[in-house]
Q: What sequence folds into this?
């Protein structure tokens, strides 16, 4: 029986070794893996010059009549921001932020239009414009960089995003324009998204309205920043005849709107819950009164802007008919800290300028000029709006300290209205995370 | 005085060391000679048997000629005197002398009359019946095959060139005239010399077949004084004698040619001996020309002796010399004759032969079916890749990298061990690249070769499994099942899918190690015939052991984790292999030699953990993997994924694969429990636990960076350990199954056979299910076929030009991170393996402090580029990066880079957007340059070297943009330059003067080791060619 005993023992040893290895193996510590080490660096991007668009043009073309003409006979245009170099029909300014202020006295585009000229950006949302009968939207893309870029324009209307996009090539140091009524007509309310390759493009929208023979106003609309907590600092006020808030959420959101005046929150029925479908542009009428601000709180990113219309008596056509002018004020993110407002700069228009500021908390708004001297100082209660008139020469750079969202409104009589949003002159350092990996394609 | 008949004087020369002398003296009693002299040159004087009369003479220290002369001198010279020369191991049979004397009387001109020598123990077998020499080179040709049965076929032979002097009648006048034999031959070749001189002197040499002398051939076989050797021991002296003979008899101008020929032919013969697995004979062959040289001093005297007695010249002997056809026939008969005898001795009888033929046909059919199934499985898994690859695409994957390698790249990696990934580093060993060399010289290049390797790997593994299973069991069914189970082993299929070349090659090579080891030790199964096996006794084959050694070296270079297992197996197996111990132990030698640098590096590491990291490194592509539980590993995990359309059956692939593994484990368990083939089964199961342990330890050990830049540490791949475990378990199951079909009788046998058939059926079903599930088209693999060009064309050209620019590729990952790669090749190359580094990035091969620079230092520069900042170009150009390519699809990176003034856009393609990077002064970035202040002179570089002629004297720094390593050296007109410290960690030297500036990668230690490995493995490879020599004659009688 020795053979059997040997067989049994050795068999047990062999199978036992296998089992023992399996059991012991599970008690081995797992290897402490170390993933690819990433490094994060703050980088200051290259600064591109700020660019201003070409002057306002008459949308349809010149129509000459006996006692009227579409083309303005008297117009003025001022570009603020230091020395300027031509970029196509527009200009690039020396300062990191510029502004253009144009006034046409008569013709189809009799109005006051102002725009803050900013640096090129890759993605911009412009909430303005319409392409119904009598409305013209002219998108001007300025490329002040040394490289050709390609811009893709997407329109959003009342039924959501339009399927087709337009792509424009804008050469180095040149400008291109696109008449949006040629892309999609009969859009009463629209929003535009501009995506640009390369360093980006400066986009501006000339929104011109014509009511029969009466000029119904023209303004430059600039980009609005998307966010979940926005405020439109200046709506209505100064004898406005109409005010509208236009909203759009790219992905769909539920927003609640709050109307804020000089003394606090005002009643605005039906705005506690506004359902925004993805890509659908919605307009809400704003109650009139003094200058107000509108707070927008949503559960997803929203872009918004508000249009304020003022009337004046018209020289054109029959007696007693009125012409109008309007301004577009884009929504800004509600400032979370005082530092986030300190960096923004706008320009005083000279005549009729005022700063309208909204603050979410109780703070003191101090207006400083370009040299840093205090121009005005006003306490602002929480969630109220304050209007500070500006008495500075045209072209003076202004900024504020204090935690507030603000715009510069220009009101020149009789009934010419424009607004300029402040912009940041500095470029933020970007946080870039890099990791070393293999590449095969 | 004259006599009527010749006087026969018998002379026996003895040195007292032969045990046959009494028999010789006893046999002399039957013969009628006139005088007998027994000359004792050494040792004791013999006793004469009764009835024998003769004289005993002492001639201490004399050689053969002197002894004969001493005996002859005691008798006065007579007319017609014949000397009958005898050795102390030649016993004449009755009637021999009469026959010889009769012929001597008849043939008056015959100077030497020789007798036929027969085997001492078996007088019916002829040993010697005259000899001749070849016309050129004087190879001695025996005129009869050794141990040929004497049936009277040679009875008509008379005139021959030479006969053996032992037992021959030599006319005294010829002896005196010739002066006896020539001492220069030292005992081997004297007869041929004396006989040939006799022919040239106008005399004859005759052999008498009817006169038979029993000859024990002690000198030839070296058995004097009871030595136990065979005829190989006298080979050097014999061969030297043959050369000397040729030189003595050749025309004067031919002597230098013959000396030259002796030297030239010696190494060739030595190589042949190595192929025949006879290393001692190889050494003997190498020593023969030197012995010949040593004897050259005696040559003039020998030639003078020939001339002195020469009367007729070489023409007379020409018809007796052997033409080359005879030489060839003789060689073939001698080489194959003994082999034929051996085969005869173990030849199967008719019944056995019929069974063997049946078994052979069954085996061939089984091999064909198994091979076809293996091929079908290979094509099902990877056939989709073959089409595009043959059309010009390449296989590439995240783990494998790109496979479009030039043979020059593979060779450069093999020779230098320099891994160019990132900024470069030295790898421990580069023998793994040698395994890829054959694949890179295939028509189409490495991309076709590597694709074929990966696609046909399951087929190769199946064939290897067939061969290895055949050593344990001969049944075609079981062999086929085992082969297919091995070839479709789940972990192996995952290795193929991932492109892990090291694990794939190890899995393919391991069965051949087993095959060679078992065959080399003679443990392999014979074909079952009747009640036993054929051949009855298996002889181990040294060629098989050599083949196993080469396969083990290749497997260990493909999967270094297998080294401990290979060494353990070789040691243990050698301990049990009687008669083949040395060569089984030697199986581990090439593997150890190949791993020598790794062992040295592990020793330098100092800690157990560090040494384990070095020894368990993965060769070839390295990537992270999910560790599996031990029981999963036992069942074959990791398992391949499937593309079966039913989503909730996703575990199906895992289940089907584990079913195969489960069957294998159950088979091994049954093998142990059944008690059949005790020792093989148990040792194989223990070996399987070693394999499992290897796999477990490997997957729990950090083995190195994914991209070799020291950034990521990943765990090892358990594939090689799993392959070893699978091989061992299948071997155990196969060993126990051998002969199981026929065991038992009656009802038990019927039940048993039914059981076995059912088990085989289940195994076949499991294998088919597993194959089907994995081969379902569309399964997610890491590999895919892509276009050969990865980078834009102009960029790729810059990489191989004299500037050797590096390329920085930027890509944006999903989470917004910017991923970057520094490439000096067109796409990341992982197939050649990566330089092994420790946690701090130090290369194990050349540990330096601080660790070598890696592209991790470029993180800030890359972030600057990605953020559209400026100022990154100098840091990029400092490392030789001349182009930045933005991967296709990364538009925001493109946007950022297009804003940077100092980068020039080079164009746009669907392979990415390249931007040119230059120095501040717009000079192009190059791999090496001479820096004098702010001016730079580019040095054109090749893969591993570069040179430039400095016409004017310069005083500056030579900078080579690679991570500093001591193997990079620079010389100016041959003088080595002094190294300087470089803040970035590049290789830099101080240059002062003018002349030829050369940069070269020079690693003499590695070069020496590579030559040693090449030589050793080359000789082993030569030894694995199965040419057998006359070993079979030994012990046959």
A:
């Amino acid at each position: 029986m020795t053979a059997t005993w040997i067989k049994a023992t050795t068999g047990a040893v062999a199978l036992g070794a296998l089992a023992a290895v399996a059991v012991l193996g599970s008690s081995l510590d797992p290897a402490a893996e170390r993933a690819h080490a990433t490094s994060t660096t703050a980088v200051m991007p290259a600064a591109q010059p700020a660019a201003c668009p070409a002057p306002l043009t008459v949308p349809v073309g010149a129509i000459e009549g006996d006692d009227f003409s579409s083309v303005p006979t008297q117009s003025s245009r001022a570009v603020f921001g230091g020395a300027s170099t031509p970029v196509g029909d527009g200009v690039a300014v020396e300062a990191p932020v510029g502004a253009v202020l144009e006034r046409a006295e008569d013709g189809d585009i009799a109005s006051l239009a102002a725009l803050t000229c900013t640096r090129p950006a890759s993605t911009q949302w412009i909430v303005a414009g319409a392409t119904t009968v009598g409305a013209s939207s002219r998108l001007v893309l300025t490329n002040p960089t040394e490289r050709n870029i390609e811009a893709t324009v997407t329109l959003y209307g009342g039924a959501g995003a339009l399927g087709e996009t337009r792509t424009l090539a804008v050469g180095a140091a040149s400008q291109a324009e696109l008449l949006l009524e040629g892309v999609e007509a009969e859009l009463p309310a629209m929003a535009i998204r501009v995506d640009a390759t390369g360093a980006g493009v400066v986009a501006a929208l000339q929104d011109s309205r014509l009511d029969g023979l009466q000029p119904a106003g023209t303004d430059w609309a600039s980009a609005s920043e998307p966010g979940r907590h926005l405020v439109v600092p200046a709506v209505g006020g100064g004898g406005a005849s109409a005010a509208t808030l236009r909203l759009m959420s790219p992905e769909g959101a539920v927003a609640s709107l709050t109307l804020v005046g000089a003394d606090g929150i005002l009643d605005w029925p039906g705005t506690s819950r506004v359902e925004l479908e993805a890509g659908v542009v919605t307009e809400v009428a704003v109650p009139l009164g003094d200058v107000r601000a509108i707070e927008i709180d949503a559960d997803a990113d929203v872009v918004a802007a508000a249009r304020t219309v003022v009337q004046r008596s018209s020289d054109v056509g029959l007696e007693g008919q009125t012409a109008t002018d309007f301004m577009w004020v884009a929504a800004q993110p509600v400032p979370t800290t005082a530092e986030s407002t300190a960096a923004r700069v706008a320009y005083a228009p000279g005549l009729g300028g005022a700063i309208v500021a909204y603050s979410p908390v109780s703070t003191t708004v101090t207006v400083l000029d370009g040299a840093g001297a205090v121009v005005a100082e006003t306490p602002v209660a929480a969630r109220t709006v304050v209007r500070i008139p500006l008495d500075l020469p045209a072209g003076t750079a202004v900024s504020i300290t204090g935690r507030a969202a603000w715009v510069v409104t220009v009101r020149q009589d009789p009934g010419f209205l424009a607004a300029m949003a402040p912009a940041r002159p500095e470029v933020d350092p970007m946080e870039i995370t890099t990791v070393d990996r293999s590449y095969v394609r | 005085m004259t006599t009527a008949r010749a006087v026969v004087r018998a002379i026996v020369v003895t040195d007292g060391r032969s045990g046959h002398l009494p028999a010789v003296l006893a046999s002399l009693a039957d013969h009628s000679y006139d005088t007998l002299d027994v000359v004792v040159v050494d040792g004791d004087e013999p006793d004469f048997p009764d009835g024998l009369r003769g004289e005993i003479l002492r001639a201490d220290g004399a050689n053969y000629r002197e002894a004969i002369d001493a005996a002859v001198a005691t008798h006065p010279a007579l007319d017609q005197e014949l000397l009958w020369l005898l050795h102390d191991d030649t016993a004449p049979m009755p009637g021999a002398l009469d026959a010889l004397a009769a012929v001597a009387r008849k043939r008056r001109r015959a100077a030497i009359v020789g007798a036929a020598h027969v085997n001492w123990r078996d007088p019916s077998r002829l040993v010697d019946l005259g000899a001749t020499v070849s016309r050129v080179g004087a190879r001695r040709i025996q005129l009869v095959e050794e141990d040929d049965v004497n049936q009277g076929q040679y009875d008509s032979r008379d005139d021959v060139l030479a006969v053996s002097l032992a037992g021959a009648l030599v006319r005294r006048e010829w002896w005196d005239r010739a002066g006896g034999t020539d001492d220069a031959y030292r005992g081997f070749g004297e007869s041929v010399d004396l006989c040939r001189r006799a022919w040239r002197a106008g005399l004859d040499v005759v052999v008498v077949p009817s006169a038979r002398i029993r000859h024990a051939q002690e000198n030839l076989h070296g058995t004097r004084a009871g030595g136990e050797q065979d005829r190989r021991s006298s080979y050097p002296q014999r061969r030297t004698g043959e050369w000397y003979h040729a030189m003595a008899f050749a025309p004067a101008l031919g002597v230098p040619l013959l000396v030259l020929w002796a030297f030239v032919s010696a190494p060739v013969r030595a190589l042949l001996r190595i192929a025949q697995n006879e290393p001692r004979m190889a050494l003997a062959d190498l020593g023969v020309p030197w012995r010949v040289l040593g004897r050259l001093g005696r040559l003039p005297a020998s030639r003078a002796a020939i001339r002195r007695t020469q009367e007729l010249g070489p023409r007379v002997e020409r018809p007796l010399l052997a033409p080359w056809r005879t030489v060839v026939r003789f060689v073939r008969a001698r080489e194959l004759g003994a082999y034929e005898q051996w085969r005869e001795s173990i030849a199967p009888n008719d019944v056995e032969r019929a069974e063997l033929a049946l078994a052979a046909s069954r085996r061939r059919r089984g091999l064909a079916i198994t091979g076809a199934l293996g091929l079908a499985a290979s094509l099902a898994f990877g056939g989709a890749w073959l089409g595009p690859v043959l059309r010009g695409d390449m296989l590439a994957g995240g783990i494998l990298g790109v496979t479009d390698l030039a043979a020059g790249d593979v060779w450069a990696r093999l020779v230098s061990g320099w891994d160019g990934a990132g900024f470069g580093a030295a790898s421990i060993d580069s023998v793994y690249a040698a395994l890829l060399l054959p694949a890179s010289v295939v028509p189409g290049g490495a991309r076709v070769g590597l694709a074929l390797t990966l696609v046909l790997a399951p087929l190769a593994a199946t064939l290897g499994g067939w061969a290895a299973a055949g050593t344990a069991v001969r049944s075609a069914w079981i062999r086929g099942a085992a082969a297919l189970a091995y070839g479709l082993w789940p972990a192996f299929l995952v290795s193929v899918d991932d492109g892990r070349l090291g694990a794939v090659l190890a899995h393919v090579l391991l069965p051949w190690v087993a095959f060679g080891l078992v065959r080399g030790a003679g443990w392999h199964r014979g074909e079952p015939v009747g009640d036993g096996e054929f051949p009855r006794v298996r002889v181990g084959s040294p060629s098989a052991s050599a083949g196993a050694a080469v396969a083990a070296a290749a497997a260990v270079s493909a999967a270094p984790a297998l080294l401990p297992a290979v060494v353990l197996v070789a040691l243990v197996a050698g301990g049990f292999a009687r008669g083949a111990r040395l060569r089984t132990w030697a199986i581990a030698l090439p593997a150890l030699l190949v791993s020598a640098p790794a062992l040295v590096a592990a020793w330098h590491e100092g800690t157990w953990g560090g040494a384990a990291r070095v020894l368990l490194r993965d060769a070839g592509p390295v990537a992270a993997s999910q560790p599996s539980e031990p029981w999963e590993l036992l069942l074959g995990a990791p398992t391949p994924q499937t593309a079966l359309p039913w989503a909730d059956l996703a575990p199906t692939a895992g289940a089907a694969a584990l079913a195969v593994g489960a069957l294998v484990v159950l088979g091994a368990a049954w093998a142990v429990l059944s008690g059949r083939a005790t020792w093989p089964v148990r040792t194989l199961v223990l070996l399987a636990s070693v394999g499992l342990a290897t796999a477990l330890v490997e997957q729990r050990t950090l083995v190195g960076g994914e991209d070799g830049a020291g950034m990521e540490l990943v765990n090892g791949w358990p594939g090689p350990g799993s392959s070893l475990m699978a091989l061992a378990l299948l071997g155990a199951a196969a060993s126990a199954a051998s002969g199981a079909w026929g065991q038992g009788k009656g009802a038990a046998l019927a039940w048993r056979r039914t059981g076995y058939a059912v088990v085989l059926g289940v195994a076949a079903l499991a294998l088919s299910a597993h194959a089907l599930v994995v081969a379902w088209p569309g399964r997610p693999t890491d590999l895919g076929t892509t276009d050969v060009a990865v980078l834009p064309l102009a960029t790729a050209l810059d990489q191989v030009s004299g500037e050797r620019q590096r390329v920085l590729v930027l890509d944006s990952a999903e989470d917004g991170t910017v991923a970057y790669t520094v490439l000096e090749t067109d796409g990341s190359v992982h197939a050649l393996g990566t330089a092994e580094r420790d946690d701090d990035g130090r290369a194990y091969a050349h540990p330096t402090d601080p660790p070598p620079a890696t592209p991790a230092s470029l993180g800030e520069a890359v972030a600057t580029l990605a953020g559209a900042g400026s100022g990154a170009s100098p840091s990029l150009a400092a490392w030789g990066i001349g182009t930045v390519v933005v991967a296709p699809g990364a538009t925001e990176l493109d946007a950022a880079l297009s804003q940077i003034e100092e980068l020039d856009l080079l164009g746009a393609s669907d392979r990415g957007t390249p931007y040119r990077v230059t120095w501040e002064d717009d000079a192009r970035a190059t791999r090496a340059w001479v820096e004098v202040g702010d001016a730079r002179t580019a040095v054109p570089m090749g893969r591993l070297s570069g040179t430039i002629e400095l016409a004017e004297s310069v005083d500056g720094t030579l900078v080579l943009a690679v991570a500093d390593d001591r193997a990079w050296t620079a010389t100016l007109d041959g003088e080595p330059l002094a190294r300087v410290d470089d803040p970035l960690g590049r290789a830099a030297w101080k240059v002062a003067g003018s002349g030829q500036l050369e940069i070269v990668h020079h690693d003499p230690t590695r070069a020496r080791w590579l030559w040693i490995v090449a030589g050793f493995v080359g000789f082993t490879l030569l030894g694995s060619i199965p040419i057998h020599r006359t070993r079979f004659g030994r012990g046959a009688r």
Remarks:
- Chain B touches chain A through 86 residues (CB under 8 Å).
- The radius of gyration of chain B is 39 Å.
